[in-house]
Structure formats: C-alpha cells, structure tokens
Amino acid sequence: MKAIVEIGGTQHIVEIGQEIVINRVEVPVGDDVVCDRVLGIIEDGDKVKVGKPVIEKSKVVFEVAEHIRGPKVIAFKFKKRKDYHKKKGHRQDLTRLKVKDIKV
Questions:
Q1: In a structure prediction context, what are the per-residue pLDDT tens digits for the chain, which is 104 residues long?
Q2: What is the pTM of this model?
Q3: What is a single Pfam family found in this protein's UniProt entry (predicted)?
C-alpha cells in the first residue's frame, strides 16, 4: 500500500519502510510525527482512493531517523569591470523520516 502525503510543504508518495527527506521538523530523533494530510491511497493492484482534498480519518506515522544538513549551495554575484563580487553559501537544515505505518 502506498500513500500520497503532504508534509513539510511538499508532496511525497510513500510506503512502509521508506525514508524521505523534508525541511527540518523540530522533533527529537526517535519520536513519531503523524501526518493527517493524506491526499490519496494506492492499494495493492489498481485500487486508487483520492481525497477531496484529503482523505478523512487517514494518517501516516513517521519516525524521525536523523537531522541532517543539505549540500552547500553557492550564490555568487558578479558585475564585470565594476570590481564587484559577492559570494554567499547556504546549507538547508533537513530531517530524514522513516514511514512506520499507514492507517486508512
């Protein structure tokens, strides 16, 4: 069984045991995060259940596996012949979640 969930401002297709990476969630490692924004359920075979916009009384339980930081992104600004350049780096704080259960 797979579920389409909206968590952390993004949509993911998840199944039990899968890991996803989202923007940082302020929950300690090992605790559970419950997502009740289930947009659709894909059951074994061709059965598809779609919510309007969400499926009532459905939820997906995630376990916080770890907090990580994304790759470094460089923002470089440059204007030729003006002796102007700026270099700025950024690393996004991320959380890795593991799917524990899908409740329909």
A1: 999 999 988 999 999 999 999 999 999 999 999 999 999 999 987 899 999 999 999 999 999 999 999 999 999 999 999 999 999 999 999 999 999 999 98
A2: 0.84
A3: Ribosomal_L21p
| DSSP string for residues in 45-70 | SS-EEE-SSS-TT-EEEEEEEEEEE-
Question: H or E segment at 5?
Answer: strand 2-7
Number of domains present in the structure of the chain: 1
Query: Between the CA atoms of 94, 100, 101 and 102, what dihedral angle is there, to the nearest 10 degrees?
Result: 30
Cβ atoms of 15 and 97 within 8 Å: the answer is no
